[in-house]
Amino acid sequence: MLVDADGTGPQDRLRQQLRTREEEGLYRRRLVLDGPQQARVRVAGHECLAFCSNDYLGLANHPGLIRAACEGARRHGVGAGASHLISGHFSVHHALEEALARFTGFPRALLFSTGYMANAGVIAGLMGRDGVVFGDRLNHASLNDAVLGARAQLVRYPHLDLAVLERRLAACRVKNRMVATDAVFSMDGDIAPAADLLALCERYDAWLLLDDAHGFGVLGSQGRGTVSHFGLHSPRILYMATLGKAAGVFGAFVAAQAEVIETLIQHARSYVYTTATPPLLSHVLLASLDLIETDAWRRERLAQLVACLKQEVRPIRWRLLPSDTPIQPLLIGDSARALALSRTLREHGLLVPAIRPPTVPQGSARLRISLSAAHEVEDVRRLGAVLRGLDGA
Ligand SMILES: *Cc1c(COP(=O)(O)O)cnc(C)c1O
After folding, report:
1. Which atom of ligand 1 is nearest to the CA of 114?
2. Is 245 a catalytic residue?
3. Per-residue pLDDT tens over the stretch 33-81
4. Is-catalytic flag, 310?
5. Are residues 283 and 324 both part of a single domain?
């Protein structure tokens, strides 16, 4: 048997690490949902009002999309059976790529299985060991991991601090550079100043990778995303968005110039060495894209809910971070306190996750309230009333 000199095996060390994590209030546990993702979810036999999904437009359980999934399965089967470069690239994948390119205003688009893999693919595919990636300190973990995986150099800059970014770009002697940023920051809900970032990328000859996981479907005309929100056009922009959040399904894509997309098809390992997503999902996503484009009421409802939440929590001691997106974090500070509040909300039948370090910086634990077009104004009022009660208690 494998044991250390002190008589402990590797599982004992894990148990000790887990215990420490628990004591620090950082232990993560999964909710188990019974039934679809929607405003009211069933967890452990109880119905809860959920403010914790990324299903911003309320499409994850849309009847028309469920019908499209069944139809997609009948037409294409349930599995792609191969990677895109062997024989898993179906006409419906191709049609979705064309629709996504058209919708986002880029020449081409390429589907990836997940946003995590899309970021890995685009950074490894374009940067490699000789590249330098400048990343906002609050970027999503998948962007940081992608740089590590590509063995490129990661240079971080303080959140939204373009003056520091510019100094670091100016000091950089490496030719192959990229600025990578969340377009909407996933734990804060604020929007990156994409036009100013693009101007810096033009001045210092860098790619601009915008990760619009939380903006696609939500921001811009007809939900076309952050690039449309700012009216940007540039061959330097690499636009990544996910299809498992506002689009309500699963997957991700990168939209960019034709040369970029062809390069990714050749070199992005997270594209090449993996099975294509089930083509039925592309069939569903074509229908989801139609709903994103035409159901303006979903974005109007979100704006109304955001305004209502701000009003509801105005009197309490905890502050919402400045955000006009459906991500509305209530800053608590202490991890244990945030966790206790989340638990108490749960006892009131409200699901609001406590987000703690290392996902967010030390001392900035928060309740991350996410709103969805599936919510009613009444739902947000109920959350507000309970939060006011907890503040008074
Ligand atoms: C969710 C998310 C991703 C990962 O997308 P998945 O499709 O869930 O893998 C990437 N970037 C950001 C900012 C995200 O919030």
Report:
1. 7
2. yes
3. 999 999 999 998 999 999 999 999 999 999 999 999 999 999 999 999 9
4. no
5. no
